[in-house]
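Changelog-linked ticket: adenosine monophosphate example.
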Amino acid sequence: MRFYNTMTKRKEEFVPLEPGKVKMYVCGPTVYNLIHIGNARPMIIFDTARRYMEYKGYEVNYVSNFTDVDDKIINKANEEGVTSEEISTRYIEECKKDMEGMNVLPATTHPLATKEIDGMISLIRTLEEKGYAYNVDGTVYFRTRKDRDYGKLSHKNLDDLRSGFRDLKVSGEAEKEDALDFVLWKPKKEGEPYWESPWGDGRPGWHTECCVMAKKYLGSATIDIHAGGEDLIFPHHENEIAQSEAANGVEFAHYWLHNAFLNIDNRKMSKSLGNFRTVREISEAYDLQVLRLFMLSAHYRSPLNFSAEIMESAKNSLERIENAVSSLKHLAENAGTEACTPEEQEKLEGMKRFRAAFEEAMEDDLNTADALAAVFDLVRFANTEADENSSRAFAGALQQEIISLCGILGLKPERKEEALDADIEAKIEERQAARKARDFAKADAIRDELLAAGIVLEDTREGVKWHRA
Ligand code: AMP
Ligand code: ZN
C-alpha cells in the first residue's frame, strides 16, 4: 500500500510502526455549526482509508478530535446567549448524525479538547523547560527560531513567510521574538471559558490540542498517519510537528496525508459568497450515500467540484449499482438450479479480476476513482453474465462480490427493501403463530394486510413462500 506523503512529497510504501497495527489521527471539525460538505471530504476519505486498511487485516486505532473551544464557538455562544459547552455539545451530536448518514464509522476515540487541558499544560511546561517556549504576560509562545526543522512539512521559505508576517507582528503581537512564533497558551478574556495554569487563567492554542490527543489516545509519541485537509498543512500541522518533536524528541508522524479542497460550481465555498452547503441540506434532497459516492469519484488529492449536475450523476451511478444488486438478488431467489455449472465456475474465476483491479487502485495512494471504476466494470459483467437461467450460487456470488467491494468503500448498495423483507418475514411468523393457536381470523387479517402491501403469500409443503404482486 502506498501513500503520498506531504512531508517527502513522494508516494511511499506504507510500513507501520508495529506490524499489523495502524495508529492514525485525523483533525476533526470545530463544532460551532452544522458541518459543511467541505468538512465531509476528509471524513469520507480517511474513513475509506481506514476501512481499506481494516480489510487488509490491519487493526486501526483511529482518533479524530472535536475542537470544542475556539473563538468561533465563543462567538456563537455569545450570539445565542448560551454557554460554549452548549454550542459544542449540540454540534457534536449533529455532526455524529451526519457521519452516520454518510456511513462514516465512529472513531476509536473522539477526544474533546476541553477534556485534555492538563495534558496540554504539561506539554507546554516541557517546552518551557527545554527552552522552546516563552511567556509574555500570560501568553506563551513557541520559539520557532530554536527549531531547526521548522517548515519541513509545508516546504515553505521561512524568510518569505517572516516578511509576510511582519505587518501582523506590528499590528497585534509585537511582543513575539519572531513573526512565526505561535501561541501555545493565551490569557482569558472577559466572558470566555478558561482554565487555571502556571501562566495564569486562559486556554490552550489550537495546535497544542492535536499533539496531546494524538499521543494520549494512540499511545505513542510517534504515530503512523496524521491526516486532514490541505489547508491544515500550514500553520496547523507544521506547528503540531514543531511542538510534538521539540517536546518528545522523536518524529511525530511517519505519513502526512492531505485531501484537496472541495469547491462549489468551480468557486471556493465560503459564507461570504453565499454558496455554503451543509451536509444536512444535502441529506434533504439525497441519500447521503450519494454524497459519499460523489466524494469517492475523484482522487482525494485532486480538487473536487460540487454541482447539482454532478450530484445527479452520482445518484444515477449509485442506482446502477443498486439495480444490479437487487436484480441479482431476485435472480438468486427465483433460480431454477442451486449449484454453479462448470461454465459459471469459470466465470466466477474471471470475476476475480475486478477485485484485483479494485485493490490495485486502492493500493496506489487510495485511488478511489479507479476503485469505483472496477466496481462499475463488475456491475456491467454481472448484468451481462447473469440471467433467469443462472444458478442460485452464481447469481448470489455476483451479488455478494458487488456488496463486498462497495462495503470497503463504505457504500451499502442494498435497497431499503432489505429492511422491508425482514418486516415481511416477521409478519409471516406472526401469522404462523396465529394459525398454530387456531386464531384463523388473525391469520387471515395478516394475510390481507400483506396483500394490501403488495405481498402475496403461498402456503406450500415447504412452508410459507411469498412474492411481490
Ligand atoms: P475546520 O472545522 O475548519 O477545522 O475543518 C475540519 C476539516 O475539514 C479539516 O480537515 C479541513 O481541512 C477540512 N475542510 C474544511 N473545508 C474544506 C473544503 N472546502 N474542502 C475540503 N476539506 C475541507
Ligand atoms: Zn489538528
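Closing comment: Example verified and attached. The longest strand covers residues 223-229. The radius of gyration is 27 Å.
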